[in-house]
Amino acid sequence: MVRAPLTRLDWQRGERLGALLRQARGDRSMPEVAAAAGLSAETLRKIETGRVPTPAFFTVAALATALDIPLDTLAEHCAEPAPVRQVPA
Amino acid sequence: MVRAPLTRLDWQRGERLGALLRQARGDRSMPEVAAAAGLSAETLRKIETGRVPTPAFFTVAALATALDIPLDTLAEHCAEPAPVRQVPA
DNA sequence: CATGACCGTGATACTAATACCGGTATAGTA
DNA sequence: TACTATACCGGTATTAGTATCACGGTCATG
After folding, report:
1. ipTM
2. A-side interface with B, Cβ within 8 Å?
């Protein structure tokens, strides 16, 4: 095995990352944010829709800068999908 | 042109990222940190030596977690190589 | 209706990231 | 010298990321 394909969990994590980025984008247009981050609108769309589950580090960093959200917050929310509703008290 | 090759600046940025990660690793062995981050030692070595300038986001995030350094600090130091010594006052 | 802007999907092309393998060099130890 | 461990380097194989293009859908505007 030279390079294992992405697992189901990788894809789910990518979906969470995309959802967070889309939420952070808010009302701003996709081409506008993509240009601010220095990537194409199609690529941003694929990231937001979770079709590119593991983008490059600096791509996410540029998006985080363009969207004004800290990288650590992004990583935390991706690692923790929805652990809530399971540990009430 | 379908996918532009990495520029010289991309490689320099990758070298800074690698230097930061190697510095953060300290005395810990390469295989130990790689295992903690969930990647192979070869990949970690390539990242540290700057031969893989743009690793995946979650790869860097896992390394940052394993090395206990915030992602934002990492991104900042990579973006700003050494702008000092040029703006004295 | 026509035009344009934005979003979505799919295909294509090319480079990059990751893992595995073998070889090499350098210390450290006996 | 030999042995061991670590790190560096090169090549190979496979998957993934990114850009571009093309088509379709929706909505606002003319």
Report:
1. 0.88
2. 10, 13, 17, 54-61, 64-65, 70-72, 74-75, 78-79
